[in-house]
Structures are given as structure tokens and as C-alpha cells.
Amino acid sequence: MVAHPQVFTTEQVAGLVGLDSKKDSWRILKFAESREYGIQPSISSPRGSGSRRLYGLENVCEFALALRLLETGLRSAAIGKVLKQMKGQLDSKVGTAEKSLYLVIIRTPQPGKPLAQKRLQEVRFAEDVDAITRILKSRREDDMLLVPVASMFRDLKSRLEDL
Fold first, then answer.
1. Would you say residue 2 lies in a domain?
2. Is the dihedral of CA 63, 67, 70, 72 positive or negative?
3. What is the pLDDT of residue 17?
4. How far is CA 114 from CA 28, 123, 143, 162, in A?
5. Residue 121: beta bridge partners?
6. Which element (helix H / strand E) includes 86?
7. Number of domains, the chain
8. Which value, to the nearest 10 degrees, does the dihedral of the CA atoms of residues 155, 132, 111, 85 take?
9. What residue numbers bound the domain in which 59 lies?
10. How far is CA 79 from the centre of its chain?
11. Is residue 83 one of the residues assigned to a domain?
């Protein structure tokens, strides 16, 4: 694999996650500025007029996953919780770009509990159908969201190599 930069601007991040870097950079800023998502620039935060946010590879992966989860219909608070649980695990997935990779979000139903209250949630990766089946068998009573993310990481890897 070709070495790629480890520092990215907002515009570069937008392009890397498949957005138009000129028109859609506002989406990246919205993710970064919203406390619910919990994405903090790992290299540099803005410090006044003219300063820039600079992101690392883990941030790029967080933005890509946040965008993917937003497309599934998850709310920002739920996405932020997933990102928090996956912290430090995402950038390693770019280099491997498995043939199949799924993000499994497991939520324990709590009937009668107000939706605003935190719910028990576990997030993990599954690399094949057998792994998913094992999770399903062990967590029969829980709700699960299965998100295919292999293509997202492969696309990200390809865009990084093009830089």
C-alpha cells in the first residue's frame, strides 16, 4: 500500500468520504461542531478567524462511518454513541479492507423506558456470515442493526491511495 498523508483538511475529508469537497464541506463541519457526534479534530482545532481544523485518519474514518450511519436513519445521538464505542478501532480497518465487513449494533430493548434515556448498546465488527450468526444466536432477544461497511472502507482506502 502506498503511504498516504496523515493530516487532512475539512475539504480533503469531504472528498475522502465521497462528498463534493467544494459543495459539501459544511456536512463535515456539522459533524465536527455538533457535540452529539463527538468527533474532535485530532490534529488541530480552530483557534480564531482563519485557523483550520486538521484531522487524522481516525477522524476521517469517524466521518465516513457517521455519514454511513446517518444514511441508515440513525439519530445523531445514536451515531455519537456508536462512534464513541468504536474509538481507536476504525483506522485499522482501512488497511485491511476485507471482502466482507459488517458493523453490528446491538441494543437491548427496554420497554416502557423513555426514549430520551440511555439504552444498553454494544457495537462490534463481524467479518462474515458465521460471525453474524454467532451474534444472533447469543443475543436472541436483542435488537440488531447490521451495516455493511466493507465497501465504505475499500472506497476510503482507494481515495487515500489517490492522494
1. no
2. negative
3. 96
4. 31, 22, 17, 47
5. 107
6. helix 76-86
7. 1
8. -50
9. 10-162
10. 8
11. yes
